[in-house]
């Protein structure tokens, strides 16, 4: 298994390289995150890259323990013109700090938010199978109250059609590995790529 931070740093660099070719005006394109533009999701990526365990606790206190408010506060701190944000992101690309959460949450961040940014801009990222698989397995065992998909995938078997990855037992939900991760993470853009006897159940649960 690869070091998580090696995977995270590689994906941060790949995203920065992609964004360098995107005009500032296009950063205001709506992302796959409801209510956030591409610019906001990039700001969130920068904020989370800069987060330490102590900083996370301080931020939550300031946000009165409202996780969504804390996220928005981070976005508001980092928002700005594209060149300025890219410079800030480059300075943080090799950071190895994060909130008090399982380390694989960093993979969920870079892969899922990477697609939140790329797909509205007409692109799809290329990610190592290991990074996507570890992110999917974490989502499958993490409760929805913590941003995961445990309740959504309960009693279902997720099977990737492009990798040797299966998770769970029950009626199958099949599709490309990345589509499975995006779908269980609430990104409906991936729903058309799903199949199998359990797909309708998963889609219904996702609402």
Word description of this protein:
The chain is mainly α and 207 residues long. It is 52% helix and 5% strand. The protein has ten helices and three strands. It has a three-stranded mixed β-sheet with strand order 2-1-3. Helix 2 (38-49) packs across helix 4, helix 2 runs parallel beside helix 5 and helix 6 (105-118) crosses helix 7 (129-141). The relative contact order is 0.13.
The amount of beta strand, in percent, is under 5%
Radius of gyration: 17 Å
The neighbouring-strand order within the major sheet is 2-1-3
> What is the overall pLDDT average?
93
Distance between the termini: 34 Å
Q: Please tally the β strands and state the result.
A: 3
**What does the largest sheet look like?**
3 strands, mixed
Helix/sheet category: mainly alpha
Order of helices and strands: HHHHHHHHEEEHH
Low-pLDDT stretches are none
Spatial shape = globular
Q: Which bin fits the share of residues in helices?
A: 40-55%
Structure summary:
With 207 residues, the protein is mainly α. It has ten helices and three strands. β1 and β2 form a beta hairpin.
Descriptive labels:
10 helices, mainly alpha, 207 residues, three-stranded mixed beta sheet, single chain
Which helices and strands, and how do they pair?
Layout: H1 4-19, H2 38-49, H3 53-62, H4 67-78, H5 82-92, H6 105-118, H7 129-141, H8 150-153, E1 157-160, E2 166-167, E3 172-175, H9 177-184, H10 199-206
Parallel strand pairs: 1-3
Antiparallel strand pairs: 1-2
Helix pairs in contact: 1-6, 2-4, 2-5, 2-6, 6-7, 7-9
């Amino acid at each position: 298994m690869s070091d998580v931070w090696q995977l995270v740093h590689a994906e941060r660099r790949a995203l920065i390289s992609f964004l360098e070719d995107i005009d500032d005006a296009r950063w205001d394109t709506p992302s796959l995150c409801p209510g956030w533009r591409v610019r906001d999701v990039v700001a969130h990526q920068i904020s989370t890259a800069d987060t330490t365990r102590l900083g996370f606790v301080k931020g939550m206190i300031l946000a009165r323990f409202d996780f969504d408010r804390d996220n928005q506060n981070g976005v508001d701190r980092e928002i700005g013109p594209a060149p300025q944000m890219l410079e800030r992101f480059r300075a943080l690309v090799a950071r190895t700090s994060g909130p008090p959460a399982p380390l694989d949450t960093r993979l969920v961040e870079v892969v899922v938010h990477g697609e939140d940014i790329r797909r509205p801009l007409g692109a799809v990222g290329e990610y190592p199978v290991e990074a996507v698989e570890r992110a999917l397995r974490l989502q499958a065992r993490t409760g929805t109250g913590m941003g995961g998909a445990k309740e959504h995938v309960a009693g279902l078997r997720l099977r990737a059609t492009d990798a040797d990855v299966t998770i769970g037992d029950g009626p199958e939900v099949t599709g490309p590995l990345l589509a499975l991760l995006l779908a269980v993470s609430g990104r409906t853009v991936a729903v058309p790529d799903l199949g199998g006897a359990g797909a309708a159940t998963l889609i219904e649960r996702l609402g």
